[in-house]
Amino acid sequence: xxxxxxxxxxxxxxxxxxxxxxxxxxxxxxxxxxxxxxxxxxxxxxxxxxxxxxxxxxxxxxxxxxxxxxxxxxxxxxxxxxxxxxxxxxxxxxxxxxxxxxxxxxxxxxxxxxxxxxxxxxxxxxxxxxxxxxxxxxxxxxxxxxxxxxxxxxxxxxxxxx
Length: 162
Hints:
5 helices, alpha+beta, 2 domains
């Protein structure tokens, strides 16, 4: 489920042991409720989980074509071009780039990128992010050592500057 959706996950179970609860929560569940429970409590927990998963508003893109100085991203065709050539990206590289270019100028936290691309259990594995961002810069930036478009905000996250 986490591979294709950010929907909140609530576990409803007759099992009330702490091991069961810990396993479910560690596996990605947002909440765990044991039977019996009241409908009011269930609805309140659904509302709370929904509030937590709502994203901050971002500037909507007015086109599916995002142009930077040294490359162009076609979000519909899922293609990237640099110097009049298609650039081959791995699915992971594409996912990272897509998140960044869909939020131009917005700081995207390391945790959000890790969670969206690698799943909820990867929220602290920043080495993954560094490796893939370096690969993207090598493929897209004119000077990967001094990136102009895929900018790092140390200790915080990354930002796409068109």
